[in-house]
Prior knowledge:
Elements: E1 2-6, E2 9-13, H1 27-31, E3 40-41, E4 60-64, E5 69-71, H2 76-90, E6 102-107, E7 110-116, E8 123-129, E9 134-141, E10 144-151, H3 154-163, H4 170-174
Parallel strand pairs: 3-4
Antiparallel strand pairs: 1-2, 4-5, 6-7, 7-10, 8-9, 9-10
Amino acid sequence: MERVVCEHGDVEADLVLIGIGAIPNVELAEAAGLTCENGIQVDEHCRSSHPDVFAAGDCTNHPNTLLNRRLRLESAPNATDQARVAAANMMGGEESYCTVPWFWSDQYASKLQAVGFSSDGTESICRGDKASHQFAVFYLNENRLIAVEAVNSAKAFMAGKRLYGQELNPELLADPNVDLRSLVKSVA
């Protein structure tokens, strides 16, 4: 155990993780007169405040109607998917970019995968074994699945992506004997 010196007092810790985030590089966009606030402001078509300038990726702040808010996402899936929409629209299309955010990261022997934002949840249910580092936490809000965070649990993550937004029975979700795939409702 080590002593960590913090602004508001010392803390004893075995491990310290510091997540500082990233600051979008928007200097060129600002110099060009584009509207920037926590990234280059774009509409659902990836169009900036200038109708002939499009932007995509980590530097953008875009609307997401599924989550009812603007987002700036630092994720590879966001960058590639948003770039496809921007490119299509530069060629005269009118595609909209709106997707459920998902993320992944390989950290040594652990694969971390997430869909949605756990901070939107009011209830959490863990499936799997935290001690063996193979588990998933499902986050619900009024019994609707709004996020999944998985550690070395790709099947739970993939099921969570398919279950996202669905109303679920928390008891069935918590039961390790219930196959997650059986909870996926078909869309008519």
